[in-house]
Amino acid sequence: MNTDSLHIVLQYAAARRRAAFRDRESLERWREPRIVRHLEEVRSRSPFYRELWEGRDVQDWRRFPQIDKKLMMDRFDALNTAGIRREDAMNLALEAERTRDFTPEIGGLTIGLSSGTSGSRGLFLVSRQERLAWTGTILQRVLPGSLLQRHNIAFFLRADSNLYGSVRSRRVAFEFYDLLHPLERHVARLNAQRPSVLAAPPSMLRLLAEEARAGRLKIAPGHLVSMAEVLDPLDQKIIEETFGRRVYQVYQCTEGFLGASCSHGTLHLNEDVVHIEKDYVDEKRRTFVPIVTDFVRFAQPIVRYRLGDLLTEREAPCPCGSPFTAVERIEGRSDDLYVLPARSGSGFVTLFPDFVSRTIIGASADIEAYRAVLHAPDRLTLELDVRAEDKRPEIEEAVRRATQHLCERIGARKPEITFKPYAFVPGGTKLRRVQRRFAVNERMEPV
Q1: DSSP state of 63
Q2: pTM
Q3: What tens digit of pLDDT does each residue of 107-118 get?
Q4: At a CB cut-off of 8 Å and minimum separation 6, what does 238 contact?
Q5: Which of 143, 300, 341, 438 lies in the 20 to 30 Å Cα band around 20?
Q6: Exposure pattern of 304-322 as b/e (b: 16+ CB <10 Å)?
Q7: Domain 337-436 part of CATH 3.40.50
Q8: Which InterPro entries match (predicted)?
Q9: Considering only CA atoms, which of 341, 339, 367 is closest in space to residue 352?
Q10: Element of type H or E holding 88
């Protein structure tokens, strides 16, 4: 066993031990001193954080200023601890995107580029040590059974990375599938590989399920993993019915490996590697925006970083017994929260993406796929893929009535609704089934 493989095995074992916490008090006692030590080291090595935290006691780190993606990218050169210039990192990342060769590193660090779901692309840096630690943790959280068993993984992403390449070993066969390649090529490769684990964005899992239903894809994976996009209930139902397996989730983004499903299928936040504060946008619904502090990553420190995601906390404890926060669902992005004029004539009301999704799905059993895009507070476009084209007019009318009824229930004016055929193709961009395409201010008023 080489040094890297040994390190991965040790990190896998460490992640397994950390997963054994059974109460929040023990987790907090173990975690707090590690966070403080990590932040002391970050302050000594990152000019950005040293300036941001000047005069503050690291023991009071929960009161430190928050940062976001724009600030992280604007101050990238001073924020990272490896002295990497943003321009150099971006040029290398863009060249990798162009050539589809993702092996080059910069200063011994893996460089990656996020897909830009929020409207701007983000860079991430990961050291070799961090990469191996990530590998051990994700194997422990995602793989079914033991690391000693053999696993044959098919892994679909927009871009490969040394980060994902670390997973390959003698017992773990790992094949990267480029989302930009044609579907026919994927099907041929999968039929040859016959993976035991199939991991992909839900939009791609859905396409593969349709290929399996058509008889062209002939695989029987024992484990399904959804990643990189929100898992919509409609897609989940079709994927699970087709492959006869539960879909497990990985919550991974530029800012770190944030969560994974347990054996019961519940998504848990990885609170043994990240600290997540909850800024509730609706306490009654238990919906919050995560503020992330990663106390493992050091090359590009993530401290009190405000994500753009909306998560809804599970009300009842998960039967698995883990003290890690259980998430009922990932709603989508906070900037996809619908803002509609109030029916009273003044002000605006907000509508969570999950309500939009469930309203459309519930309107007709003949809807195969959909996208709902709010272009302006009074203008909504609905793309529908329907089972039978001759039924499209009545399906569209059912969706229109259901959407209007939802608006009435929440006290919002009904937007003008335009229907179009469903046109999304998985590849270079992430699927956002519910999307808002205009900005709002802090008072949730359109700007």
Answers
A1: G
A2: 0.85
A3: 889 888 775 555
A4: 206, 209
A5: 300
A6: bbbbbbbbbbeeeebeeeb
A7: no
A8: ANL_N_sf, CapK_Type1_Caps_Biosynth, CHP02304_F390_synth-rel
A9: 339
A10: helix 86-99
